[in-house]
Design brief:
309 residues, alpha+beta, five-stranded antiparallel sheet, 10% strand, binds glutamine
Length: 309
């Protein structure tokens, strides 16, 4: 890919994202409300590891729901494509990420590993004999995608563990119908920890570029997931990566993406590059307002829409 074009696209995305207005920090997780709302970064990394960025690309923020992608990758590596589809599902819910109604409508089957219910189920599928070894395997997977060990924020984790009652309720519903594959409170504990690690915009670009490169981290050269596990991951991201806004995102951007309520967003152009952005204020669905503008701008400037002929 042409370096000058990517450089220009990232610069345009920075200008567009800076001008974006509206949204609010997540506040249902108390410590996320106090992150400075004017932080903003955008970055891109190609499948051969070349990197461009503007703004706050080194600020470490809570990964939140973006972690669901890497725990899904771990579930696929451990159990295979068919088992993950059977045990969790592979469709959009069309509802908010923590919807109980979505569960009720489908016999408590989570449908997607990228909503809270499916992500708790995915965490319960992580390999290991006990909670600590399951957690270690999830954290290790995040680190392989990022290319370095990813730290857990004790502050974010404490803030979430003390307020995650809704997720605990979801886990009991899953368990009741056989969709939680370890003790449900253990699954929520691990899931909450996986959401509480800290990444930067640069990390997200590397993590996305690993998917864009077919599962090989372009910085470390390590194969992180099997090539055949990348299409199902990207399919899930396209269907549910931005929750109930995923259809609008596919319609306007045409790239698989994943957001988190910490303000992070990553999108993947397979075989080409990843685009990452970070800005804490969120829209009603829980997606970064300026992050969406920035990622969308890079995708449009570079003509990356997967559905464009
Ligand atoms: N930890 C958050 C939760 O469980 C993650 C949600 C998100 O980023 N959409 O609610």
């Amino acid at each position: 890919m042409d370096a000058t074009a990517i450089e220009a696209a990232v610069a345009a995305a920075h200008a567009a994202g800076k001008a974006a207005r509206g949204g609010e920090n997540a506040s249902y997780i108390p410590c996320l409300a106090s992150v400075p709302p004017d932080l903003f970064g955008v970055a891109a990394m190609t499948v051969d590891g070349r990197y461009w960025s503007r703004g706050d690309d080194g600020y470490a923020f809570a990964i939140e729901s973006i972690s669901k992608v890497f725990t899904l990758a771990l579930a696929l590596e451990t159990h295979g494509v068919d088992a993950v589809r059977e045990k969790i599902g592979a469709s959009a819910t069309g509802m908010p990420f923590n919807s109980v109604m979505a569960l009720e409508l489908h016999g408590d089957r989570p449908l997607s590993p990228l909503v809270n219910a499916g992500a708790i189920a995915a965490a319960s599928l992580a390999p290991g004999a006990d909670a600590e070894s399951r957690w270690a395997s999830i954290l290790a997977m995040q680190g392989k995608f990022a290319g370095h060990p990813v730290p857990l924020s004790d502050e974010v984790n404490a803030s979430e563990q003390g307020t995650n009652f809704h997720n605990r309720a979801i886990a009991w519903l899953l368990y009741d119908r056989g969709y939680c594959y370890c003790d449900p409170m253990e699954a929520v504990d691990i899931y909450t920890r996986q959401c509480s690690t800290l990444v930067t915009c640069r990390d997200l670009a590397v993590m996305g570029a690993t998917l864009a490169a077919g599962g090989v981290n372009p910085v470390t050269g390590e194969r992180v997931v099997a090539r055949e596990h990348v299409p199902p991951i990207l399919a899930e991201m396209m269907m549910e990566g931005l929750y109930e806004a995923s259809g609008e995102w596919a319609y306007t951007v045409g790239l698989p993406g994943k957001s988190g309520v910490g303000g992070g967003l990553v999108a993947v152009a397979p075989g080409r590059l990843a685009i990452a952005a970070f800005a804490p204020p969120l829209d009603a669905a829980g997606n970064s307002v300026a992050g969406q503008v920035a990622v969308k701008t890079v995708a449009r400037e570079l003509g990356l829409n997967l559905f464009a002929v």
